[in-house]
Design a protein that fits this description.
The protein is an alpha/beta fold. 34% of the residues lie in helices and 17% in strands. The relative contact order is 0.18.
Length: 193
């Protein structure tokens, strides 16, 4: 009983005081000052990264999703709709837009289109997102691992030799918690049935 009370007290302290000082962002007033009034909750934000769903084969440089990809997009909407995203971001390509289209329709939330050539700007936006927000990003096999790295996540497993996702690697759903330290915690889910 006493051990349970200690554990409960420790968990409550973390909730009330936020991140330990060594995990607070640089410049956090609670880190710089020992003043208890300056301490605030560490309120990270979430970034959810997915690769676009399976694309149709063909000669076009901007293919649409295949039937299998459309099914995955619906599955993603079911999975991610429960996270109550505040923002949906895609690239200028049809396959990323169609990947988040069911989620956009389900939530009555528009998607924001960002140029794939300006990924560094997107990473900066994601890093500086408001505390407590959740941003869902549909991107590409060569970009997703770089965004994880730039946000402070560790290296992803099972990448190709060039550091990209494999050709058939469409199921990864990466949930990053950003903002309590220079590193981000990463939880990997799957959109496979």
């Amino acid at each position: 009983m006493k051990l349970a009370a200690v554990a409960c007290g420790a968990a409550l302290s973390i909730l009330l005081l936020g991140c330990p000082a060594e995990q607070r962002p640089a410049g956090d007033p609670a880190t710089a000052s020992g003043d208890a009034r300056a301490q605030r909750l560490c309120n990270p934000h979430s970034v959810i990264l997915v690769r676009h769903a399976e694309k149709a084969f063909g000669e076009t440089p901007d293919p649409e999703l295949s039937l299998k990809g459309r099914v995955r997009a619906i599955r993603l909407a079911t999975l991610l709709g429960k996270t109550a995203p505040t923002r949906l971001v895609v690239t200028e390509f049809k396959r990323t837009q169609q990947t988040l289209e069911p989620l956009s329709e389900q939530l009555h939330k528009p998607v924001e289109v960002r140029s794939s050539a300006q990924t560094k700007d997107l990473v900066r936006e994601l890093r500086d997102a408001p505390p407590g927000s959740t941003t869902v990003v549909a991107t590409h096999a060569n970009v997703l691992p770089m965004i994880v790295r730039e946000l402070g996540g560790g290296p992803l497993r099972n990448l190709e030799k060039d550091g990209t996702l494999g050709e058939d690697d469409y199921a990864r759903v990466l949930v990053l918690s950003v903002g309590c330290s220079t590193s981000a915690s990463v939880v990997e889910l799957s959109s496979d049935p």
